[in-house]
Specification:
- The structure is a single chain.
- The chain is mainly α.
- Helix content is 61%, strand content 0%.
- The chain is built from three helices and no strands.
- Helix 2 packs antiparallel against helix 3.
- The chain is elongated.
- The termini are far apart.
């Protein structure tokens, strides 16, 4: 087996590219066009709110977007 030497920056770039490729490959395995499990806006907002990861302005914006959608219902 031969040894090849490459600069550290180039190695890091190759590793990052590989990780991105793996992430994309995993995402493509799943059915990304599947319908959400619920159409109820209140339930969706409650789930996001209970996660304690999202700011109040984000939740308000999410609610406004969901209300505009013809897919979701109150």
């Amino acid at each position: 087996m031969s040894t090849i030497t490459i600069p550290k920056k180039e190695y890091q770039k190759l590793v990052e590219t590989r990780l991105r490729y793996e992430y994309l490959r995993q995402a493509m395995k799943e059915d990304i066009f599947v319908s959400p499990p619920t159409k109820k806006i209140g339930r969706i907002l409650a789930e996001f709110s209970s996660a304690k990861k999202y700011s109040r302005p984000f939740l308000k914006d999410l609610e406004r977007g969901l209300k505009r959608s013809s897919y979701f219902s109150s």
